[in-house]
């Protein structure tokens, strides 16, 4: 009798969760409900607490007992349901058969994606779980074909609305940047407060106004920072002398000072839309690598002047502080540009042990041994072109090599495809096991691993297919140009588009060993000779 009264009491107070195990044994899963709430904004009417309060009303009307409350604070657009911690916990309990009703404010709280919502519905349907909406205006499906059709349209519109909002937000942000209007991402930059000015019915301008006591601190930081290295003045000295008034209410650290120095807004500038936000890319060193320089051309490409910000320090001061900030930075050397026969040429002269031959000064191919030869690039390209023409037109060595490669890749793709199909079958079995079993808590991890394995196979197949397409394209190009092949034509073709030609050569040639000899007794005029046949295969 006491147990029955306790159950009746619990059913009339839906915001209480029954925690006594002996009471739950008397309650059918069909009498229990889970509440799911997710926040996507800061409006009070749509907060997690507001959603839970509305869910309590639904619990009371439906005479259900609250099993548990599940919440998430992640965006459904950015994070799918299976990655949200609260919803993952709900699914685990749902699979255990703990409840048969889920109460949610609106459909878009569950998912913003049509595919995600469809998957959630399938999981709930397989576990005989119904969905109730606490929002009075939300369409309540009856489970028939027409209801499902209407529900699909609604979730599709929700997905479209989310995409449209994101697109408009991004477009508005870009438009503001183009007008030179600075926008802070998280918190307002230290040293500023904002004032909103109404420009029109649809447009408001946010101005960033200085807070004097704070901007005085910012100015002091820059002035002191520029003194580092002079008269034994160091970062430690700066930190010890930092004024207690006006500074951030935190412990002063070198990292904090460096963050202040790197902020372009203090100099009235901001990053342009679509540019890299790596300040280090602004610097280079002069020829003797002694002095770090600021690349003004790069700076003008990356930064724009703010029209709505009170400038605290002059731009020149910021530039000087940045140079000091990165004075120990060593910009990476520019990668060697592409050139014909790169990484394919080796020296065949004695004592060189087939050292690599590289293009230097854009004019000469030179052996990496200092005392060895260097040959003008035109002589090398002409000699190799003659041999390539002969090989392709007469012996078709290169083409046969490509065909062998194609056969190998096709075999690899077939093997990967079989493994991929087996993996898909395995995934399907796991899904069926997941839907049929209500007690296995390890299934989601198993499914996640199988899905990851599927994607890896897809990626490998696409990679091999891409290589196959390139090889077929190379053979097509060889066949297309074959009637017109001559040394003159191929030299002209190779030099028209270096990158395209080099990519084709890499597919054909693996290794060429060169030697040099004096031409007609003149040691300054050297000609290039191919020591052995061009290697059309792996080294």
Automatic annotation (TrEMBL):
Annotated coiled-coil segments of the chain: 392-426
GO molecular function terms listed in the Swiss-Prot or TrEMBL record: DNA binding; DNA strand exchange activity
Organism expressing this protein natively: Anaerosolibacter carboniphilus
Resolvase/invertase-type recombinase catalytic domain location: 32-180
Domain of life: Bacteria
Matches recorded under SUPFAM superfamilies: Resolvase-like
Sorted UniProt keywords: Coiled coil
Full protein name: DNA invertase Pin-like site-specific DNA recombinase
Pfam families found in the cross-reference section: Resolvase
SMART domains given in the database record: Resolvase
Upper lineage: Bacteria, Bacillati, Bacillota, Clostridia, Peptostreptococcales
